[in-house]
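[Amino acid chain]
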Amino acid sequence: MKRISNNIYQISLGWVNVFVIEDNGLTLVGTGPKGSAGKIFNTIKSAGKDPYSIKQVILTHLHPDHAGSAGEIKRILGVPMMAHFDDAQIIRYGIAFRKELSLTPGLKNWLIYHLAIKRSAIDIDPVEIDRQLNDNDLLPLLGGLRVIHTPGHSKGHISLLAEKEEVLIAGDLLSNSMGLDLSVFYEDRDEGIRSIVKVTDLDFEKVVFGHGRPILSNAGSIIREAFNSYDYSFI
């Protein structure tokens, strides 16, 4: 596991990342695609921690690369699942995509979509969401883990702000796979950009992404600068 801050860790599952929060046991953020439970558990164990101390799972959104192993992990551990209200309504039916997606322009995004995403699963195992989250909810982790509703990539997409550790878990609000950029696709790209603008008003020093490398210093300023000067002409 890659240590991001005192109590937040990143696990790479190849082209997607999940996160572990350590506070009175472990909280898993994201589950990766189907079949990821073993790799997640083994990585946690290799870091000297007990995967069976996972107390809960938070899903940033419903897509199969992030929620694909939610059902498997819930069956193994019996722990509660959390997701935003809007995505929770259809996760319980195993629906992982809400409608036709809007691909972000650019060769990089075209290649990623056609070589990886288009060939991946389009559904997930149905799983009941035990707690439905809403914007500005404050979870009792790390002295306050703030839920930020950041729709666009999906209607119920959330980011998580660990206020005291100054870390933003951005999910697929943005990506940093080959430079900081929009995610490969959105359900509603205009709304996604409004969500990016929303987080630029927050204070954080570090940011981690569902896809790509973390930014470990001055992250809030870097995102503000990148998207204040962003070319929105294609929207």
The CA atoms of residues 196 and 216 lie 18 Å apart. The chain has a mean pLDDT of 91. DSSP finds seven helices and 16 strands in the chain. The first strand starts at residue 2 and ends at 3.
